[in-house]
Amino acid sequence: MGWLRNPWVHRVLGLALGGIFLYAAADKILNPQSLVTIIWGYRILPPGPINLMAIYMPWLEVLIGLALVTGYKRRAGAIWGTGLLTLFTVALLINAVRGLNVACGCFSTSAQDVHNAWMLVLRDLPMLLAAAILAFAPPRHGEVPRPTGPTVTRR
Amino acid sequence: MRREGLRDLLLFPVLTLILGTAANFIPGRQLPFWGQGHVPPAEGTDFRWLDVLSADALATSLPNVVFLDTRAQETFTASRIPNARPLPLPDVDRLLTPELENLLRHADAVILYGDGDEADVEQLLAQTLRLRGFAPPFILVGGFPAWQLAGLPVEGGA
Does A54 lie at the interface with B, CB-CB under 8 angstroms? Predict the structure, then answer.
């Protein structure tokens, strides 16, 4: 399992997962009001904190996405990403067990975008795994790819 | 090293708080930070539930019962409750014509139905209609599948 700590694996996973986080955040940031109804549709939170989640969660997704894509604070971003994806998966799982199919709000804030909750859980699992690898299997020291660029030689 | 990691972790919620709060002051996209504001639809205020047999009884005993179908256009065309009108949530502005508005205002009962048990879309549509000045409509429990399952008449498939 040493390959999990290969820096290139981290780079590729970071780009892919970070891209997904940024894409997922875009519609939520543009339509916070619609996000409120999506969060309400999960029927987990009481009305009070629903707005707080709609206000802040998309920005956390943006920061996680940026960290994963750029590699700046990637591990911290991955830890938060793991937490957020765990939260999403548990929320979907609760509704799947209840037998409710929800508009997940994963990539769109349309309430009409309803999917089978079990399928959504399955879709989240690979992303959760990727985030967990980035968070808990940090790249080996000495193997971090160095930025390429002109070589400066001292005279 | 551990302290640095903790600092990195704390950076995320701090920046999230700053960005989220700042963005929430942009006009047109503001939400109250807590509680009331964009209120989710509520039974009683925005809609009332109605089971299929009661809906059928209403439709046969009252002259002006309007069924609104919230499903996608193709699904609606394929099969629907007789005389239902299509009104998917994203198309409300386009489909809620003055003629339909007039029909809804003079209806004895308005019944919304979709294709799922949860009826989230129907609840949101009911709230939209209520906010536009219409009486709170009924929502068909179980939607179109329940209507079919009860062996009640359907039309479509042209």
Answer: yes
